[in-house]
Amino acid sequence: METDITRLVLGLGSGEINVLLELYYNRDGVIKNFKRADLKKETLQSLIDKNLINTSLESDENVVSLTEEGLSVCGSVMFNRINENKELFKQKIQVLPERAVASLVNRVMWKDVVTKEGGFVDPVTKPYALDESLWYERVLLKDERISDTLEKFYNVLEELGFIKTVEGEQWCSPEVENFLRAEYKDIMGLTWDEEDSLKYYFFFYVYAQDQKNLIDFSGEGEGYRSMFFGEDSTPPDYWFSSNRSYPRTLLSSLGVSESRIMSFLGEMKKKEIVSERYYPLFSFSFFSEDDKIFVISDIKSYMGYITDKFLTPVVNSLLS
Questions:
Q1: Residue 98: which residues within 8 A CB-CB, separation 6 or more?
Q2: Using CB atoms within 10 A as the burial measure, which of 1, 33, 52, 208 is most buried?
Q3: Cβ neighbours of residue 187 under 8 Å, at least 6 residues apart?
Q4: In whole angstroms, what is the distance from residue 123 CA to residue 210 CA?
Q5: For residue 306, with 0-12 CB atoms within 10 Å meaning exposed, 13-18 middle and 19 or more buried, which class applies?
Q6: Could you tell me the residue ranges of all domains in the chain?
Q7: What's the CA gap between 34 and 51, in Å, rounded?
Q8: More confident residue, 98 or 16
Q9: pLDDT classification of 154: cutoffs 50, 70, 90
């Protein structure tokens, strides 16, 4: 079978390979309304004749999909591309901080996560549907230095043909994902203490989101409004749920200490960043026996506090 696939790959023209990879980079290897003004009919017909793609008309949509053989050919093409560019990848990636890249590869980049039931869930839109993780590591991207590192990393991958930008998002094949995970599996990424710190940042960020209607956004706090409500120019943060209820549920899910949370809130209270209030039957109470919550009275100072205390030290360490 391997010999047959290799022979198929060697017999393909660059145009045919490009069409196959364009399908490969789309979810499920299917493109609806497949329209390419520069696509020759002969190329399409050749791929059909070689049993590498299927075409059909569904509800007036031109649907083009990869066959099983087509998927195998794409996997072989990507595997060969990785082998040919492996050393060049190592050269180009040397300019980026190794621990930061290792953390991105091992903890941040991949969007599709398999649940225990075997289904797929997108932690970008449904982080709380995951069985294993709340995807708290993506708070690293709140620091521009990490976002910049990720962009530079993507640029290297795209330059080598390892990934492709599809509708504004970077997509990579399973072969590339496996290659990157293998490359960075022995590189120290996040330490336990750093993970812990990111969890606390995640908690306090979500806590602020959940009581957004109680936050005073006047003065300098106005700049944080889009963080919680979202605007066309500044989309709402995408890895958090919009309907969290009880802080204790989040505490349990993250495995962080309630006493430490209370201690940090106490520090913020002394700095007049938050204040204690009582709301009858309020859903965000920490304790079932009362209705006490901590209301954010200075959102700018609040975000500065949790960033300086929990996020910035981790990023500094990863970039050092």
A1: 187
A2: 52
A3: 98, 99, 101, 102
A4: 18
A5: buried
A6: 2-70, 78-184, 192-319
A7: 18
A8: 98
A9: very high
Task: Pick 2-70's CATH classification: 3.40.50.2000, 1.20.1250.20, 3.20.20.70, 1.10.10.10.
Answer: 1.10.10.10
Which tokens is 112 given? 């599709």
End-to-end distance of the chain based on CA atoms, in angstroms?
48
| Token representation of residue 201 | 């940042």
Question: Rounded to an integer, what distance in angstroms lies between the CA atom of residue 20 and that of residue 13?
Answer: 11
Say if strands 120-121 and 274-278 run parallel, antiparallel, or are unpaired.
unpaired
Residues 6+ apart with CB under 8 A from 3: none
- pLDDT tens for each residue of 203-260: 998 888 777 777 878 888 888 877 776 654 333 444 444 444 567 778 888 889 989 9
**Going along the chain, which residue ranges are E strands?**
30-32, 53-58, 61-66, 113-114, 120-121, 163-166, 169-172, 274-278, 292-296
Q: Which two tokens stand for residue 196?
A: 């812990």
In the chain, DSSP finds a helix count (H) and a strand count (E) of 13, 9
